[in-house]
Amino acid sequence: MIKFFRHIRQRLLSQNKLSKYLLYAIGEIILVVIGILIALQINNWNEERKINTSLRKALSALKSDLVQDTLLISEHLQEVNYQYQLNESLRERIAQPRATIDTLFKITQNEFNPNWNNPIYYNTNAYESMNKTGLVEIIDDTLKAHIKDYYNGKFYRRGMVESITNDYRGKLAQYVDRYTFGSTSLHDQGKLIDSLVWKDVDLSHLAASFQGISNFKRILFRLTKDEMEYSLINSRGLIQHLNQYLITYD
């Protein structure tokens, strides 16, 4: 093809047809420019297709993370609610006007368990990856706002849970260094140790210790419940939004 165009140029020059040569040269330049523009457009289409493919994979991974999180929450929320209500019932019994020292002993020695459920470790890899790669910024504004609002709310609540958990660990360490409690798979101190620990207990200290740690446990479980319920409800709404958005790529 190049030889063909060269041959035409040479023939026009040899025939001293300068005007036709100039027109031909301009036409050739136009063809080159059009070819470049077409190549650029094809390259842009390819890049856009790659970005859309990456975005679809990222959103699908995000949806998968959210689905896994809802399953984790559904599995653990009932136990968190139970532990919260149990802690409240123990506090209510001691707060009753008819409560006695025996009530305090029975609850703290046999019924109250200061341990708490470990927090759920959520799947946030897809969201963090989208932030690092910048993919989150090219999503439709409505969906982008939905995603960011959800995770900002989630991380804020998660931060509150982690903060009170650290405080609770300190209270728990002080409590278990002083008192035993009902036998569990992790704590089986036996009758001898149990009897020695509870012999001549300082009742004022015991009452204050139980009040303090059970109150911290109340706050911890209330915040945990709030975070889990927020995540469960709002993740379901975000999953629906993602489903609607992903349809456009099918």
Can you tell me about this structure?
This protein has 250 residues and is mostly helical. The chain has one domain (54-247). It contains seven helices and no strands. α2 runs antiparallel to α4, α2 (18-95) runs antiparallel to α7 and α5 packs antiparallel against α7. The two termini are 41 Å apart.
What topology does this entry show?
Elements: H1 2-14, H2 18-95, H3 101-111, H4 125-133, H5 141-178, H6 190-197, H7 203-247
Write a concise synopsis of the structure shown.
By secondary structure, the chain is mainly alpha-helical.
Low-confidence stretches: none
What's the total count of β strands? 0
Helix tally equals 7
Note the gap between the termini: 41 Å
Shape: rod-shaped
> What value does the average pLDDT take?
83
Strand content: under 5%
Largest beta sheet, briefly? none
What share of the residues lie within helices?
A: over 70%
Order of helices and strands: HHHHHHH
Number of domains: 1
Radius of gyration: 35 Å
Which structural class matches the secondary elements?
Answer: mainly alpha
